[in-house]
Amino acid sequence: MGSYHHGRTARLELDDQTLREWDAVVLDADEEGIVLDRSAFYPGGGGQPPDHGVLLWQGVQTRIAGVRKGDDLRLIPVEGDPIPPVGTSVRGAVEDERRTALMRTHSALHLLCGVVFRDYGCPVTGGNMEPLVARMDFDLREVPPGFKQTIEDACNAEIAKDRRIDVKTLPRAEAFAIPDIIRTATNLVPPEVEDVRIVDIVGLDTQADGGTHVASTRQIGRITVAKIENKGRGFRRIRIKITD
Q1: Contact 219, 18 (CB under 8 A)
Q2: Diameter over CA atoms, the chain
Q3: Rounded distance, CA 181 to CA 41, Å?
Q4: Which pLDDT belongs to residue 188?
Q5: Which of 18, 62, 67, 205 has its CA 20 to 30 A from that of 232?
Q6: Residues of the chain predicted below pLDDT 50
């Protein structure tokens, strides 16, 4: 455990995406944020919003409303909640329903990306998500007849196949030797990053990614393509909803 770090904090959620509770020690704390030695709060990034949750200490609860990324990961307390002093042992807990919904949604976007790339060869130009709703933008010049239903059916066929979703870390050179590892129109992996985290929907889609995901496509649920929007210059926005 603890192979991923941000500043002084070991990022537990990238090693174990199912982890929801853990013990930690406060390294720094004020109204601006709380720095822990170990944290499973996803800080946000790659379109995935930050986790919510609580810190429990000495019979007190501090609610966490988000995370700020700088030299350290600073957990942002809800205004007015007590701040644990430096050196305090705390029990951290991520709000499970929100995180699990975001994991399902993030995996759904990768699956959508894989289907559109496989069937239409289109790169991604942007994306965003909230729990169980998301959008992804593609460089797609022409929308074929029946595209909305075709995409929805193809996505749900991949969910039914229950493809494994594997996460691994590779040295940069090895990662970038994988064909089409970067599905976005621009490479968003900073040049100083030496090890690249890879999310692989086995047999469908392999991408560089720093987010959290479910373990197989069946765990996503069902994808509904809610809307296809024309954003001009050949860019198409696909809006999806995730249902059980």
Answers
A1: no
A2: 62
A3: 26
A4: 61
A5: 205
A6: 1-2
Q: Identify the pLDDT of residue 155.
A: 98
Pair 70, 176: CB distance under 8 Å: no
Alpha carbon 47 to its chain centroid, in Å, reads 7
Instruction: Name residues whose C-beta falls within 8 Å of residue 153's C-beta, 6 or more positions apart in sequence.
Output: none
C-alpha torsion 235→123→132→237, nearest 10: 10
pLDDT value at residue 37: 98
Which DSSP string do the residues of 42-80 spell out, in sequence order?
---BTTBPPP-EEEEETTEEEEEEEEEESSSEEEEEPTT
pLDDT per residue as tens digits for the range 21-40: 999 999 999 988 999 999 99
d(CA 111, CA 200): 10
| 63 in Cβ contact with 54 (< 8 Å) | yes
Q: CA–CA separation, 43 vs 64, rounded Å?
A: 11
Chain position carrying tokens 């090895």: 174
Kindly list the strands in the beta sheet with 235-243, ordered across the sheet, starting from the edge strand earlier in the chain. Answer: 124-130, 133-139, 235-243, 222-230
- Please name the residues in contact with 59: beta carbons below 8 A apart, sequence gap of 6 or more: none
Q: Which two tokens stand for residue 136?
A: 């992804």
Q: What backbone phi and psi angles, to 5 degrees, belong to 243?
A: -130, 160
Helix/strand/coil percent split, the chain, to 5: 20, 40, 35
Q: pTM to 2 decimals?
A: 0.92
